[in-house]
Amino acid sequence: MARLGTRQPVHPDGRFRVGSITKLFTAAAALKLAGSGRLDLDRTVQHYLPGLLTPDFKPVTVRQLLNHTHGIAGHELPHKDPAWFLEHRYDTFDPREVVGLGVARGPRFDPGDRQEYGNAGYLVAGLVIEAVTGRPYAETVREEVIRPLRLRDTYLPGADHRIRGAHARGYERTATGHVDVTEVNPTLQWAAAEAISSAPDLDRFLGALLRGDFLTPAQRAELLAVPDAPGATHALGITRIELAPGLVVWGKSGDRPGYNNGVAGTLDGDRALVYSVNTLSMGGGQPAAAVRIITAAFS
Length: 299
What we know:
Elements: E1 15-17, H1 22-35, H2 45-48, H3 62-66, H4 82-88, H5 95-103, H6 120-133, H7 137-146, E2 171-174, E3 177-180, H8 190-193, E4 196-198, H9 199-210, H10 217-223, E5 239-244, E6 247-256, E7 259-265, E8 272-277, H11 288-297
Antiparallel strand pairs: 1-4, 2-3, 5-6, 6-7, 7-8
Helix pairs in contact: 1-6, 1-7, 5-6
């Protein structure tokens, strides 16, 4: 059901908080800017954002931001702790200040030495996009990705805590019952995990990235380039997932309180899947039934 206490079914085209699938939109926008000469993936954060990183950081390229080999630590705010979330769910965060919390912890490792997944690189990437375009990050994603692909359900909400249009509510199970966690100000996640979309839009988006002419062959190769780092699986906003010998899919998962989601497909378009489920536990894994469905879709 879409809302507890009702018989309202989940709308198959309904919107949901996509979480870290937002990273794929940020990476796509960066690739389009690079393709038009407005952004150089080999230039450094220190070049585009002087003073953001402290002197103890070695040069970090934009590409390293997007493939998680940058070494910038994330903030340590317990945003997936239910008590913290419920107290701060409507707070507005400034991305520079959030990045600063991680930068103050010092480098995690030298850029390029290893891959460590997190949000910090994409928050910085959003700031880089704003620096090179001179306009808000969300406007660039709309102009370079959402509008050209005619994604009618996808938007970046900024500080708006609502989900517009048809959507299923998200819940957290507690000792005293289910708490509705649908409404939240997503500015803490910003360019890393703020987007709202739908299954049809995500299916269209992934297909456009993996096939067709939305990206040039060179841009697509860049998108799918997994860095030469121990155990690396993430490329630019997208992940290489080997489900079985000879069965590789490319996609991205993402979660926010109340929602756990994913989009993935084969390069030839033969198989694709978009899902969104309610986990009832912030930061928790997918329910067993959802895992069986997801696995069966690619079997």
